[in-house]
């Protein structure tokens, strides 16, 4: 097992032994289960409601978890001084950072797989039809989680967990609005506002590209080219953030 | 061609920039030179803030020097191959608390490229060496300070390093814990491992080191073997006289640096140049000299003297 894999697997072990992760996981599963409670009041639109509530709950819990975990990833190592024993090992700082992020994404992925399995099990239990849009909604959420984790992770490599989490939550909201901001600004008469809208759009991730929950709710068709381009966009955005984190981290003194 | 020195430091300086605007500067290290021979146990002795940890962190690529260079086995610390041959225990080591001692030492072995049965065997071996076999499967959050220190040492030893770098390995430990760490350092020295450690605890230096450098305010103020440093200070002679009361000796007109009457004898310290005349007077007056030897300054006196001198001259510290 290479050093990189050892680090990633250790990150997963850390999450498993972290009470907060465990609590969130249990809570999220319980919340998904409880969506069945809405069954009796909304018999007519049952398929829509189970999709809406199920995917919504899954997305909310995973986004919160991804932000919580990633924002503490590096800052906690520095605060607790565990970083000294790690960065001094025969391992490049880049490998250390990417190994930590990989471990984090392993945790997030396992939790998402658990929730998705439960969600689809419930759908089939209630004989609610599963469309390609449902799979797209779950799959694209995974790319959104990469982008958000990379933001939290980049922030946590030079600021505290509080600041990192705050910034990441802000990026989450702004990122879902960034395409709206862009459209709004492009309608403006002023060239300056148009430019500003463009700048905001290119600096912030366009998180609405990963949101296929409305498609799933209304059983709308999705095209694979659209999905592929969103996935590539997510990974590219993540790659840039990680590269930036590595550059900043490489020059840093740990005193 | 002889193998490159485990540690070679030339003209090393570090200035930390502090404050929100990075406009305050602290000079932590100034023009340090240091060279270790293979197999040496080398001590960096100095008070708090002397720059000991800064030196060590530069050697482990944790801190970038402002000037000068450091080499590990002829390679820069940023080279992973250089660090592969080093075992490091930081000051107040903080291994992951959610892991057990065994898990952490195993992780360290993996990061050093070990795997499989070789790794498992080596982990058990080093845990045995630091006497942590029984507590190995307990989470580190439940460990005492001494246990954490020993696990940190085990994770440094797991890769069989040719060079051990220890930052204050015995500070904050009780006498038993300190003794155990000292014994482990001595064992490593027998194996031929080169050891660099820093401390402000003088008995540790006396008990362990071949050579020592004294750092004060970021500058090296003394360097040499422990014996050399101590004997360089020997300018006094200690004499034990029997059969003469102290008053008679005092009446001889020789400056006594120290005079202590004991039960049936007197213990005297005089300057080297006064030793012959004093001896003559004592013998003439019927006294007996039962002991005569150069008065040894302890390393502690040497250290305090170096501190005193450094206070008068220019030293580092905050410069703006
Ligand atoms: N994290 C830090 N922030 C600011 N100054 C520091 C920091 N670490 C060390 N220094 C300064 O650098 C100097 C040397 O410190 P250090 O190398 O830790 O000394 P030692 O290990 O000998 O006690 C001191 O003046 C100290 O104030
Ligand atoms: Mg120190």
Element layout with pairings:
The complex is a heterodimer of chains A (255) and B (320).
Chain A: H1 3-16, H2 19-34, H3 46-71, H4 75-79, H5 83-87, H6 93-125, H7 132-156, H8 161-186, H9 191-203, H10 213-217, H11 224-250
Helix pairs in contact in A: 1-6, 2-3, 2-6, 3-6, 3-7, 3-8, 6-7, 6-11, 7-8, 7-11, 8-9
Chain B: E1 7-18, E2 24-36, E3 41-45, H1 52-59, E4 67-72, H2 80-84, E5 86-89, H3 101-111, H4 116-129, H5 145-157, E6 163-167, H6 175-190, E7 194-199, H7 202-208, E8 211-216, E9 219-225, H8 226-231, E10 236-242, H9 246-250, E11 258-261, E12 265-271, H10 272-284, E13 288-294, H11 299-312, E14 317-318
Parallel strand pairs in B: 3-7, 3-8, 5-6, 6-7
Antiparallel strand pairs in B: 1-2, 1-4, 2-14, 8-9, 10-12, 10-13, 11-12
Helix pairs in contact in B: 3-4, 3-5, 4-5
The complex binds adenosine-5'-diphosphate and magnesium ion.
The site of magnesium ion has 5 residues of chain B, from helix 1.
* General shape of chain A: globular
Strand % of chain B is 25-35%
Cα end-to-end separation of chain A:
31 Å
Shape of chain B: elongated
Largest interface (CB < 8 Å): A-B, 25 and 34 residues
Q: Tally of extended strands of chain B? A: 14
Number of DSSP-assigned strands of chain A: 0
In CATH, the homologous superfamily of the domain at 7-85 and 161-230 in chain B goes by the name P-loop containing nucleotide triphosphate hydrolases
| Percent strand of chain A | under 5%
Structural class based on helices, strands and sheet pairing of chain A: mainly alpha
CATH topology assignment of the domain at 7-85 and 161-230 in chain B: Rossmann fold
Structural class of chain B: alpha/beta
CATH-derived architecture of the domain at 7-85 and 161-230 in chain B: 3-Layer(aba) Sandwich
How much helicity do the residues of chain A have?
Answer: over 70%
The small molecules bound here are: adenosine-5'-diphosphate, magnesium ion
